[in-house]
Write a structure and sequence with these properties.
The protein has about 300 residues and is an alpha/beta fold. It has one domain: Rossmann fold (3-Layer(aba) Sandwich). The chain is about 40% helix and about 20% strand. Strands 2-1-6-7-9-13 form a six-stranded parallel beta sheet, sandwiched between helices. Helix 3 links the parallel strand 6 and strand 7. Helix 3 runs parallel beside helix 4, helix 8 crosses helix 12 and helix 9 packs across helix 10. It is globular, with a radius of gyration of 19 Å. The two termini are about 30 Å apart.
């Protein structure tokens, strides 16, 4: 099975490529940039140009590329880059795939549980409404941008990914050093829910989506047991054998990170992976402590 992939060098993509290849997939990473070299598989997110042979006839395309949402304070310029890279990039890619003589059967697009916004203690699932604010609005437009591919008859799966647990980056990567130094603590009230998922289960969910033809539309990629920030903090401290006595008040988080603090650090999102579970997906790491022990030890 031939698979083309954007974002192949990113946090998820760099681990996904070898996993797919070990499972018999032929993977073609798409380099981002001008498509002026027919020998180099590439795509241009600014206009959707594709180097023809790289995608034409591929069985599936996995689209992971986009500006890092948590890469820095949300200035006006950064928010524009996040929106443009996620929304315009997806739309241009979808339009380009729809124009192919032999389009792929499947398009898997990375999305995020930020779709749901700050929901307090409400448990949300794939049929729940979107939240309000910058990130939910971006996620809605991001997912809608795949419509040209869907209209062409391509099976589109949008993976709404939660907080990915890996020491290589993301939230956990940033938390490890202060926690190892004994400087970890709860964020804000600590009562906000965190919908997390081990990197291994993110990778397995992509394999599951590729092989499950009945799976279409939004799919929550989160472990089945969300935890509060207080629970997460205590569990991480226990795994690292370090105290967690240094809380970060909400006002301090807002001073440090601005709008991003409310959207990513202090927002409460309790998400259920209903569609994964209803299609037979089995989580390798459904509980937080074993998941943390696994990813930190590797």
């Amino acid at each position: 099975m031939r698979v083309a992939m954007t974002g192949a060098t990113g946090l998820v993509g760099s681990s996904l490529v070898p996993l797919l290849e070990s499972n018999g997939y032929q993977v073609t990473p798409l380099r981002r940039g001008p498509c002026d070299d027919s020998t180099t598989p590439s795509w241009n997110p600014l206009n959707g140009d594709l180097s023809g042979a790289a995608v034409d006839g591929a069985d599936a395309v996995i689209h992971l590329a986009g500006e890092n949402i948590a890469g820095g304070r949300w200035t006006k310029a950064r928010k524009a880059r996040i929106r443009d890279s996620r929304v315009d990039g997806t739309r241009h890619l979808s339009e380009a795939l729809a124009r192919l003589e032999r389009p792929p059967k499947t398009l898997i697009v990375a999305s995020a549980v930020g779709f749901y916004g700050d929901r307090g203690e409400e448990c949300v699932h794939e049929q729940s409404s979107a939240g309000t604010g910058f990130l939910p609005e971006v996620c809605q437009a991001w997912e809608a941008a795949a419509e040209p591919a869907k209209s062409r008859g391509i099976r589109v799966v949008q993976l709404r990914i939660g907080i990915v647990l890996t020491p290589a980056g993301g939230a956990l990567g940033k938390m490890l050093l202060p926690f190892k130094l004994g400087l970890g603590g709860v964020l804000g009230s600590g009562q906000q829910y965190m919908s997390w998922v081990a990197l291994d289960d993110v990778l397995s969910s992509v394999l599951h989506a590729l092989g499950t033809e009945s799976l279409t539309g939004p799919v929550n990629v989160v472990a089945p047991h969300a935890v509060t920030n207080k629970e997460f903090t205590k569990t991480l401290g226990r795994v690292l054998r370090r105290p967690t006595f240094f809380p970060v008040p909400g006002f301090a988080a807002r001073i440090l990170f601005g709008e991003m603090a409310d959207a990513l650090l202090l927002a409460s999102t309790y998400v259920e992976p209903r569609r994964l579970q209803s299609t037979g997906f089995v989580f390798g790491y459904p509980a937080l402590e074993p998941a943390l022990k696994h990813v930190i030890s590797n």
